[in-house]
Every structure is written in structure tokens, then in C-alpha cells.
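INFO  loader      accepted 1 record
INFO  loader      residues=615
INFO  predictor   begin
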Amino acid sequence: METQKRKRTAVACHYCRRRKRKCDGRQPVCTLCEEANNSECEYPATEEHKRSIPVDQTSDILSRLQRLEQSFSHFASLPPTSHPQPDDHYTPTSHTYPPPSQNPSPESAFPSPGNGPLSVDPSLPFPSAAATPAAPPTEPCITAPMAIPMSHSTTTGSLLQSRAAKALLGDYPSDVFLRVESKRSLPEPLSLTPIPLSQIVFPDIDAEAASSLVDNFFDLVNPQHPILDRDDFEHIYRDVVGSPLQADLRSALVLVVLALGRAAVGTPDLTRDGWLPGVEMFTPALQVLLGMWFNSFGDSILLLQGLYLAALYYSYLSRPLQAWRLVHMASTSIQHYPIRHRSMRQPLEETHTHQPVTRLCWAIFVLECDIIAEHHLPRSGIDQVIENLPFPRCGNPPDPALLSWLADLSARRLLNRIHHVMYDTASPTNAPATAADATAADAFASVSAELSHQLGAWYDLLPSAIKPNLHNASGSPLSVDEAIMVLRYHAAGDIIFRPFLHQVCGMEGGAVVGEVVVENAKRCLGHCRGYLDVVEFRLKGSCGSLEIVLHSTLAVILLLTLASLSPVLAEAVPEIDALQIRAISLVEKWAFPGWSIESMLSILRTMRSKYQILY
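INFO  predictor   done
INFO  writer      dumping C-alpha cells
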């Protein structure tokens, strides 16, 4: 006998709906919210207040919701060892994927922020010690927060440690770039040494020039890091510029916004000793923020926004250690919010009041993860907050820029999942197997196929309004938002299939390589080439991910070069000379003396020189 479906009240508030509780619909605050949610009660907009949505957009939304529901049902019904085969739906040139409803992992597909267990066998060992990553973890690790492991092997330094890379380039320490950054001198204006607030010297602000810098910030910076609302900022800005600057958080926020507005349009000049665009505005802002952070234990959102933007400014200058220090400070401070605010012990997005905090948590998470994915630095714990934090709202109708940002957030989560499942080298249970272990190799291929399928599902579920074209070999222009999504896609695909490329390149002469391994290695090459095809559109100017993007550029061209030296893969990379030249031209623009980017350029030139001489 078919069970009758329970009807859901049309007037239930958001709080009751999320907890599947019966809402009495009392206005303005329902009984449950009055008792358990600090009297913060918000109802869905009634029909007459809803904005009209075009029919085609409505059908698109309903279609994606239906596919997500089908995905959940189908995925839950699969046995633990049921995996897609790596060559079921892929050819190296097509990058095609089956529809998400076939077998995606809905927790990793945009827009779902959840992080459920993976549909992989938890005991799978790794196929070859030459391939670098560790084996997929045991069951407790699969259900653990998807943080980047403290010890992982996806950094560019780890890639330089591979046998094939050593044969071509010589021996580099795995933390070579962190060593360079640690020894890099810090100009006095960028010093993190606090001074008394009374000794801070503020610059004179020209209203017309400042207005242009504010426009730069909201046009070029805030769309990728949307932690400020322009209307709210304009109120602060008018008050601050209308009177002498003070040693307070409002002035500091305005100044760091102006500094980023200058950095976003600054042109690097390698002939100068340093490149510090907007530093005359950044220095006093930094001193105020440091003084306030050390001497206060409140929870001003302005302080946390200022610290994050200051970290972002260091990222624009490609200073990852200083950026990490400040984003770590912002992170540990913002984690007080759920503790200090009773209403925020519930999901942080429950009210519009908490949206700035929700956005800032996500922004901090992404910036910190991007840094620690390349440099082994301590974590702040923000990933544990994110585990229980839904995505920020993106408006009604949705703002395309915010949708693109949400896509980036979900992509970062998927990248963390790949790090966690495939590259955690510290777990004692992840002992590598031998290359002769065919069963282990097949099992690991299934893990890669599952993660690749999740990546394909992430792309397929992107709203059509923001979905970029993945096939950009022709070099057709992409917007910055489109470039970011395509780069995330190819960066994830690269590390999913990189172990197979390592295995092929590390094979002794005459060794037999399995067909699946070769095909997966070619998939890695496809993602590497796709990354190079798009990266120039992200680096039209400086950006908050400058150093990380260039690290990935070095990694993909090194992988392509190693593949060109392999008898098995050489025919897949016939244009290696042109690819090397393109990568060098991208990196040398930012290779200031003493920067780790200068070291990247040196490695690239060494690679090309040895390749031309020896091969």
C-alpha cells in the first residue's frame, strides 16, 4: 500500500523548514523561533512579493533540482564498490561526461555544499610508489572534514621531487619555494610590526582619485572576493573622506579598499626595486588593523573584513607568508562568532544580518586553502566551520557574479576532497603498494574515475548563465570569472590523474604499461593543456591568486615536458616547444628579484635549456 505523502505547510519559516519541524505560522515570530532561535524568524516571500522569473529560467532551475534529487537517490542505492570505469565516457579530446543523474556525487556538485562520504572502497591501496600520492583513506577519514592534509604531495615542490623531474632538472628540496619566501626581505611599509595608534601617519586623500580607486575595487576585486556590499561601504566611505582620517576601523577599511583598487590596475615594472602599488594607503590601514587586533577582543565585522582585505593585498603582491598570517588572524577571530552569538549557533545564513559573516567565512576558507595547497603552513580551523556552513545567498534573481563565486567555493571544496582522498601522505594506513599489484592499480583507477565523475557533475550542474566553455584551444577571450572556473576545473582534473602520468613517465624502458593507465595519463595531459590555454585570461593583471596560478602554470608545463620525453606519451605533446615558450612568457612578467616567482622562472628556463640540449 502506497504511503500518502505528508503535505508541507506553505507558511513554514526558514528555520522550521530546515529542521523539518512543524511551524505554527505565527507572525511575526513563530513559537519555535521564539523559544529556540533568539526570536529571529523569517518567512518565504509571499507570491505577490516574489520577483517574476522567466519561464525558461524556472524550467532550468526545476530541471537541475530534479537531477539533484535523482542523483541522491541513485547514489545512495549504489554498493560501496560500484564505480564508473575510467574510460566509459571519456576521450582525451572531448572532455565529455555523462549526465549528472547517472551517478554523480551530489555532495560535491554545485550548488550543494554538503560533504558526505565518497562512494569508494575505503581500503584501496595505491598502485605505485613512483606515483607520489598516498592511497585512499580508511572509513574514518572518508567521513572526516575534507580539509587539506597537513602533509600532502600536490605542491609544485613535491612535483620537483619526482624521479622524472629529478632526471631532467636535478634535485630540489620539496619546500624550495617556501624557503625562498622565508628569506625574502620585507620592505618597511609592509612590516607586520605594530606601532602605537597615535604614531600612525595618514595620507591626504584626493576625493576624485579615491572615487576612481573605489570603482576599481568593486569592478575588479570585489566580484571575486565579495565580502563588501557597495551601498554599505559607500556610507562608511562618505563619512571617512568627509573628515580627517582617524585611527579607527572605518578609516582602515576605506584605506585598504583604496590600496587594492590601486593594486588591481597596477602594471609590474621589473626595472624598479619593488612593486608596491597603493602602499602609501595600505601601511596606515595595516597598522590600525594590527593595533586593533592585538588590543581588542570584540567581534567587529569591520576588523575582520579589514584583515581579510589586507591579506588579499599581500596576495596581490605575491607574498604568501604575510597573506597567510593575516588570513589566519581573520579566521581565528571570526570563529568566535558562533560562540559569542547565540543566534549564530544555528546555521549562519539564517538571517540577512549574518550574511556578511557567512560570506567572510567562505572567503577566508578559499584564500587559506589556496595558500596551504601550495605551502605547508599551519591551518586555522576554518574548514571545520565551513563543514556546517551553507553557501552564501546570491540574491533573487541570482547575481551572476555571486553565482560564479559560489561555483568557485564549491570547486575549492572538491579540490580539498581530492587532496584528502588521494594525497594524504601522513596517514599510517596509507602504505603504498607495488606497481605489480594489478588489483590495487585497478582499484585506484576507480577512485580517480569517481573523483573525475564528481568533477564532471560539478561542471554539468553549473547554471547555464555562468557555465564557461571548457574547449578554449582557439584562444577565444574569456571573462575573469569564466577563466577562474575553467582553471579550477583543469587544476582538479590534473591532480586527479597526475598519479598515472607519474607512473608512465617513471616506467623503465621496455616496461609494459596498462591501457587504463595510459588513457588516464593522457587525461592529465588534456587538463594540463587546457590550463595553459586559459591562464592568460586570469593574469591580465595582478590578482589575489597570482602566485598560486603561476605555481600551477609551472606544474602543468613540467608535466607536459616530462610526457614529451616518454616514448608512450610523446605523440600526445607534439607542440612542447610552443607550450614551454608560452609558460615562460606568462611567468617572466612577474619575476621580480627575490620573489619565488623568479625561482619558478629559473626552473622553467633550466627545463627548456636542458630539453633543447639533451633531447
